[in-house]
Amino acid sequence: MQLPKRVQIKEVGPRDGLQNEIMFIPTDAKIKLINQLSDTGLNYIEVTSFVHPKWIPQLADAAEVLKEIKRNTDITYAALVPNSKGLERALDAHVDEVSVFMSASEGHNKSNINKSIDETFPVLKEVVDGALAAGKRVRGYISTVISCPYDGYTKPEQVVYVAERLFDMGITEISLGDTIGVGVPTQVDALLQEMLHHFKAEQLAMHFHDTRGTALANVMTSLANGITKFDSAFGGLGGCPYAKGASGNVATEDLLYLLHEMGIETGVNLKKIQQTALSIERIIGKNLSSKLAAIARGEEES
Ligand code: HMG
Ligand code: MG
Hints:
The radius of gyration is 18 Å and the shape is globular. The chain has an eight-stranded parallel β-sheet with strand order 1-10-9-8-5-4-3-2. The chain has one domain (about 10-300): Aldolase class I (TIM Barrel, Alpha-Beta Barrel), CATH 3.20.20.70. The protein is about 45% helix and about 15% strand. Helix 8 (about 185-200) links the parallel strand 8 (about 175-180) and strand 9. The protein is an alpha/beta fold. 3-hydroxy-3-methylglutaryl-coenzyme A (HMG) binds near residues 83, 143 and 209.
């Protein structure tokens, strides 16, 4: 099997994970967790999000978190930004990199950011222009790339349509999200085959939610297609508003185990990520779905 030698992990737990937790994690605890993540060898952490705090109250403390964390100059500290108002707040808090986001499907885009797909492009263009003018790199997310909870299956050509417009704005990388964690390897393969007709593998990252336990299988398919960047969340944090009780992003520690055992380097310390997963479990008072966190918990208890 042809596999890459090295993969970059983009840790999105503090944003994608914590935005989905019912409990508001105290600001101090968030800062400590991010500082703990900064000591694991990760070189990219998505710290928070500057969306409307009414929509995501769990991250209403975005500015304070970004300002108070201990920065390691080897790490990019990114944040999600939906519009110019969000960009202004993110720049004020000294964000390193901006992530804009939209969906490949109309139903999810409307429900998530209150606009049609075509109405979203000018809003994001303003963010990208502003971020680039401030000397920041911009990453783009495309959600619901496999299927949408409102519109059903997404055609790969629709993902290409959105990606082309985002790249035209000057975005350096696009993360393709199986937002509701329904995808299976044949679908991921079909999507990537189409995407790779138009874009280079280095321009793409994959963002799998493990709602139905298919995330690592989808990672394998992506690796076989030459993808070398993956988003994941320590502990497998998060959930899915469309599937009650479901697990969140693929767990960073489970992904690391898979990659390291196959001889793929990441530069990230598995044990330290497992410890961070146990830290958040203690804060929220429940066990998360991650397999490697369960093993670390078992080792601590015995
Ligand atoms: P809207 O209500 O259409 O916004 O929301 P608006 O532009 O009409 O403004 C309404 C009011 O909100 C105004 O205040 C604005 O100033 C204020 P007023 O003048 O009435 O007093 N406002 C803001 N305040 C603070 N920060 C802001 C901001 N923007 C406007 N940034 C908006 C549109 C996009 C803001 C809203 O729909 C929103 O915040 N949505 C966020 C949804 C979200 O965070 N979803 C989860 C993240 S996406 C995700 O998880 C998927 C991903 O992980 C990948 C995957 O899994 O596929 C990335
Ligand atoms: Mg996500």
